[in-house]
Amino acid sequence: MSSFLNRLKNLKTGPNNSHNNESDTGSICSFDEEGFLCPVCHRKFVDTNGLEHHYLKAHSQEQTTTIYEDTNGIKNSSKHGQIDDPLQEAAIWKQQFCVSEENRMKLSSDLMQQRQRVSDLEEELDLLHKQLRTTQLKVIDQSKEIGNLKATKDVCDAQLAMFTDELLQTQDELKEKQNQVDTLCNDLIPRPTNDDVDVLKRELISVQQNMNEMSLEKEQKMEQLRIFLLEIYEYTKRFDQLENIFDQNIVNYDEIVNNHTSHIQNDITQLKQVIHLTREQKEKMVTTLKHMRNCLNK
Questions:
Q1: Where in the chain is the domain with CATH 1.10.287.1490?
Q2: Mean pLDDT of 206-232
Q3: 110-163, pLDDT tens digit by residue?
Q4: How far apart are CA 2 and CA 100, in angstroms?
């Protein structure tokens, strides 16, 4: 048993002493570092091609020699009949060691991918924050524009009320003049003399001129009021359109921000859980490897 363990130690430590001057790209590293490790000499390689080349070049001949020596040792010690069990146990330990190395490399690769994904999600979150700030600035600008339009609408409403009052006052004056004309006509009917007729004609002409002037003034004011009402209608229509666009933009931006934020938070939470589980598996794997190494050394 002791001679086999010595040969197993020589198999592990021998390549480290005999290949120190090789032009290989590998290097000795601990189990916690990332990369591909040689299961015999524990050299680290960047890719699997370098590991395969190193293993075929450095360890294929040594393993053949070691297997031959182990076979001779088994034949020479067959008298005792107790070497089969240690050989099987060592083979099991070696197989478990190789499987543990493969699992560690796979976990390391998965951890790197998860870290890259977390970085991408953080960049996407920063981009969404920038878009949110831009949207907030646009909302502030639109709010200012809507405030200005509301102020303009208030001024237009005040002017409309003033013009309406003036129109009502003019209509009242016109009605009063019409009543005066009717009164004068009734007063002149009982006195149909020439002088009275001439006076009445002059008064009627004067009243007719006044009525024409008032009608013309009324039409002008009505035209101004119509133009003003059209302007108010256009402003109101534009204000309603801007308000609808503003409300729609607010709803769309809120939906986009909420969807992306919830999606990113869920992804980050899942990635944190995966990274936590991966770290726990890695710690368990490292502990198992250390225990296996201690057992092999013993």
A1: 127-274
A2: 87
A3: 888 888 888 889 898 999 999 999 988 988 988 888 888 888 888 888 888 888
A4: 25
Neighbouring C-alpha atoms within 13 Å toward the C-beta of 56: 5
> What Å distances lie between residue 144 and 46, 147, 239, CA to CA?
59, 5, 12
The fold of the 127-274 domain, in CATH, is Helix Hairpins (1.10.287)
Q: Taking Cα atoms as reference points, which of 112, 105, 100, 102 lies closest to residue 275?
A: 112
Global confidence as pTM: 0.29
Q: What is the tens place of the pLDDT at every residue in 161-190? A: 888 888 888 888 888 888 888 887 776 665
